[in-house]
Amino acid sequence: MKIKTISFSLAIMTASLSGCMEQMEAKDKVELWYEQPAKEWMSSVPVGNGRIGAMVFGGIEEETIALNESSMWSGQYDENQETPFGKERMNELRKLFFEGKIQEGNQIAGEFLHGNGHSFGTHLPIGDLKLTFSYPENTVSNYRRSLDLGTAISTTNYTIGDVNYVRECFATNPDDVLVLRMSASKKKAINAKLSLSMLRESEISTDGNQLIFEGTVNFPKQGPGGVSFQGRIAISAPNGTLQAEDSSISVNDADMMTIVIDVRTNYKNDAYKSLCKETVVKAEKKTYEKLKKTHLNDYTPLFDRVSLQLGTGEYADLPTDKRWEQVKKGGYDPGLDVLLFQYGRYLLLASSRENSPLPAALQGFFNDNLACNMGWTNDYHLDINTQQNYWIANVGNLAECHLPLFKYIEDLSVHGAKTAQKIYGCKGWTAHTTANIWGYTAPSGSILWGLFPTASSWIASHLWTQYEYTRDKDYLAKTAYPLLKGNAEFLLNYMIEDPNTGYMVTGPSISPENSFLYQGNNLCASMMPTCDRVLAYEIFNACIQSAQILNIDKEFSDSLQQTIKKFPPIRLRANGGIREWLEDYDEAHPNHRHTSHLLALYPYEQITLEKTPELAAGARKTIEDRLSAEGWEDTEWSRANMICFYARLKDTKQAYQSVLTLESIFTRENLLSISPAGIAGAPYDIFILDGNTAGAAGIAEMLVQGHEGYIEFLPCLPEQWSVGNYKGLCVKGGAEVSAAWNQSLINEATLKATADNTFTVKVPQGKNYTITLNNKRINPVINNGLITVSMKAKDILKFK
Distances in Å between the alpha carbon of 324 and those of 43, 44, 312, 506, 530? Predict the structure, then answer.
């Protein structure tokens, strides 16, 4: 079939099916769009409802819908995941470290302080739904496929001869199914065959208008075990005929076709088969228009909470892949920056909704069938990747997206209590670098990346951050504080006084996944690496503040305060950088991608430009040394980190350069972020979600900050964003902020309280602003450029 390529602007839509659209409205849409079908997974576009989703290719003669479900995992629970060690042996091991026998200590730690992950498992893709179409011989024209982030609908338009075809695909959260609709501008113009190309061992059958597949996951590469599953694909084709065969269904002479898809597993759900059947039956009974309307009413208000515009660049009318290519060639495109930011929010919504059974894994729940085949698996990496998946949740006004993570942390705490006791002889709970859906909380197979018990503290800190943004005391009392306290109990019981210094320290543990030089040896384990100090402080401080807010646990809080006083300070190296370890060891790998000792700079607030200027200078030195090191291991998450770091350092040039680097080097044409070939042993580029979500968080950090104790609008605004506006970003204390600017000068900025609180705000510079509270002019005292205003929920403070 001949394909005639006709390029057309974002404003053109097929009038006969979609109606007319004003050009300005189309330009304001936040969408990815292309003039050709996807040839591979990394060119397709994602749709998801937090549990089930798909990658849509937009093919003409053959459409591919790559299916995903969040609990499609191999592996199984392992009651012997820990290698028992205990407190007495731990104290003997620590004695070696205190005596300077670091190499001997590392040898013993490497031999005994590892877990047993033989049934660890991984998240897996399901396979592809294939739709093979038959058309009269003719030329294809007016092709356009898109993903509208504002509606979460993937649309494919094309004309064959004089017949226009439209396909829409979305994943609805309220009805909990995937929906695909195809329509044609002429009757009886749709002829298609539906079949499956499965990646999991499955029995495929038909039952009336349904294509059914079921089986049990078998993926020996990541160990024995796996979920059982069932999927149902129901087809409706008014005025057409359906013909079922053993493993396919044909649709003939239809005016339109609607497909409803559900997939369920037996993960915490013995009734998964009946649930799958019931879900599809309920969705089938609704009209397509009803399914779509319910989906839009659910999704659009969430996405629309935040808007961002950064001016119109010269590439605004180009398809997304062409815009991406221009940035790769050295250009810049503020509209693409907006798309990258909103895409991060979109992908979190697609992967982690309030009712999702699991949080976003390494690839959200989308799966390219590559990460799961790596040794590191498509799992939960708790040494930065899972945390980065959720950095955009609060500032991006999607606090509900955190809830599946909190349920997961609660599950980790149950299994992690056993790990804390068996390995460390401690109370409370812990978890280490790698985790799965089966309760794995032990160290990984090697201490180089696995001996990181404060990974639990890092992920648990999200519980406190949620409160800082929402000020929800009921949530703090019932959900956050009990889990935070359990982790603090572990740390309090785990830490020990260093007889050489009097400091309270953790260890032996690691600075993920790095190592240091000691007496000619390359070692990784030590007492109190800097990241442990930072994370223990965050958990203790969160518990102290929580106890004060809730007026409980004073004795426990006092014990935490006394212990904090004995923490070692964050210190500088002789070369001026931040120490990664308690001692000033030389780095074995100066080009290493992990910079866990800089957690104090971001996402936390223990290093800031104003409060700790010397440490801030040390952080900059550390960053510059890493970036300039030969063979710097840059990747999607480390580059997203750099956006966040440079935003905190208010380095507009380097922050924006990191945005461009993320776009041009660490994303693909569908803007999904990639871990490049060569990193962590990967022979090819692999999609990883964290670059998208953490990159979005970094862009937000350039637009508003509050870590110095006051709210600042546009703290790190690059010249490329000299014109723009945003609304709906969130700040700690319980507020939403908005701003509009021209020539980098703020015209108007607002703070809307979402909770009763007192806010300190930096007055924008550049002109004499009128300050109003609920539209009434106020004249607050300005002290060092700051004002402090007491506000009730829904109050609006405005600078104009």
Answer: 12, 15, 15, 45, 38
CA Rg value for the chain:
27
SS3 14: coil
Q: How far is CA 333 from CA 29, 307, 595, 703, in A?
A: 16, 17, 29, 17
| Per-residue pLDDT at 5 | 39
Among the listed residues 739, 757, 761, 755, the one whose alpha carbon sits nearest the alpha carbon of residue 793: 755
Give every CB contact of residue 772 below 8 A, 6+ residues apart in sequence: 778, 797, 798, 800
Say how many CA atoms lie within 13 Å of 493 toward its Cβ. 20
- Compute how many other C-beta atoms are within 10 angstroms of the C-beta atom of residue 784: 6
Q: Give the model's confidence band at 28: pLDDT under 50 very low, under 70 low, under 90 confident, else very high.
A: low
Average model confidence (pLDDT) across the chain: 95
3-class SS string, 126-182: CEEEEEEECCCCCCEEEEEEEEECCCCEEEEEEEECCEEEEEEEEEECCCCEEEEEE
Nearest to 29, CA basis, from 392, 323, 314, 316: 316
**CB-count exposure of residue 695 (10 Å: 0-12, 13-18, 19+):** buried
* Interatomic CA distance for residues 716 and 708, integer angstroms: 14
| 237 token code pair | 């084709």
pLDDT tens, residue by residue, 301-358: 999 999 999 988 899 999 999 999 999 999 999 999 999 999 999 999 999 999 999 9
How far is residue 44's CA from residue 634's CA, in Å, rounded to a whole number? 25
Structure tokens at 386: 């899972």
Preceding omega of 508 cis (within 30 degrees of 0): yes
Any idea which of 20-34, 260-274, 630-644 has the lowest mean pLDDT? 20-34
pTM over 0.85: yes
Is the distance from CB of 332 to CB of 311 less than 8 angstroms? no
Picking from 448, 396, 376, 450, the residue whose alpha carbon sits closest to that of residue 675 is 376
From CA 401, how far away is CA 404, in angstroms rounded? Answer: 7
How far, rounded to the nearest angstrom, does the alpha carbon of residue 722 sit from its chain's CA centroid? 28
CA angle at residue 124 from 118 to 125, to 5 degrees? 165
Token pair for 665:
């080097």
Residues 91-114: tens digit of each pLDDT? 999 999 999 999 999 999 999 999
Asked whether the predicted pLDDT for residue 16 surpasses 50, the reply is: no
Extract the tokens encoding 429. Answer: 């709970």
HEC per residue, 37-67? CCCCHHHCEEEECCCEEEEECCCCCEEEEEE
Is the preceding omega at residue 359 within 30 degrees of 0, hence cis?
no
What is the pLDDT averaged over residues 146-159? 98
Alpha helices, H only, 383-454: 385-389, 391-395, 403-424, 447-450
Helices 102-112, 87-98: crossing angle, 10 deg rounding: 150
Q: In this structure, what token pair is assigned to residue 106?
A: 């590392």
> Does 76 have pLDDT greater than 90?
yes
**Residue 1 predicted with pLDDT over 90:** no
SS (H, E, C) 336-395: HHHHHHHHHHHHHHHHCCCCCCCCCECCECCCCCCHHHCCCCCCEECCCHHHHHCHHHHH
Residues 6+ apart with CB under 8 A from 397: 305, 306, 728, 729, 730, 736
